[in-house]
Design a protein that fits this description.
This protein is an alpha+beta fold and 202 residues long. The protein has five helices and seven strands, in the order E-E-E-H-E-H-H-H-E-H-E-E. The chain has one domain: Muramoyl-pentapeptide Carboxypeptidase, domain 2. The chain has a five-stranded mixed β-sheet, covered by helices on one side. The chain has a two-stranded antiparallel ribbon with strand order 1-3. Helix 1 packs across helix 5. The longest helix has 16 residues. The N and C termini lie close together (7 Å). The relative contact order is 0.20.
Length: 202
């Protein structure tokens, strides 16, 4: 792995993670190229910033669960190839119920050049420290639908509040949100704003 990258759990105590693209539980329905282990990696700057987020979240009774961080370009290329394959319906209802595969790119849910590949973008949610249960957010990771947008209609007051908690924590600690995905945040002062890496996670 690049010397300026690290596994986040080695630098931020108390994190939970489930690297979805290293598993069969993602919108492609199988492990994605470039994810050799179920762990989350990112720049050391990302580690430092997430450490601040974790501390502030803990003071509010929340912990952090991460789904993705650094994403090799080969994984993004895998997404592109998958989008061109015939629809088999296996993951459609859960992840993209109202659009076709190609529309994921057209509507901004998946990018051919992803900020994740720069190493300082993270997909995450909150969980309650007291119970370990995930905070209700009104839609799961990689639900490619207007329901996932910030300010979405059709979610409960609790879900709206939990999204606001996450956004407040992240923005206070130097991250920017992404309008289409409540779980997606990028470090404002990312160290590699113009570099898209391709080394595997492993």
């Amino acid at each position: 792995m690049n010397a300026d990258f690290a596994f986040l759990d080695e630098h931020v105590s108390g994190l939970r993670w489930d690297a979805k693209y290293a598993t069969w539980d993602n919108f492609t329905g199988k492990p994605v190229d470039g994810y050799l282990v179920n762990r989350i990696a990112g720049t050391r700057a990302l580690c430092t910033a997430l450490g601040r987020v974790r501390e502030k979240a803990g003071s509010r009774g929340f912990g952090l669960l991460l789904w993705d961080g650094y994403r090799p370009q080969r994984a993004v290329d895998c997404f592109l190839r998958w989008s061109e394959q015939p629809e088999d319906g296996r993951t459609k209802q859960r992840h993209y119920p109202h659009i076709g595969r190609a529309e994921m790119f057209e509507r901004g849910y998946v990018a051919a050049r992803s900020g994740h590949s720069r190493g300082s973008t993270v997909d995450l949610t909150l969980y309650h420290l007291g119970t370990g249960e995930l905070a209700r957010m009104g839609g799961d990771h990689d639900l490619m639908d207007p329901l996932s947008h910030h300010g979405a209609q059709g979610i409960t007051r609790e879900e709206e509040g939990n999204r606001a908690h996450l956004r407040s924590l992240m923005e206070t600690c130097g991250f920017s949100s992404y309008a289409c995905e409540w779980w997606h945040y990028t470090l404002n002062d990312e160290p590699y704003p113009d570099t898209y890496f391709d080394f595997p996670v492993g």
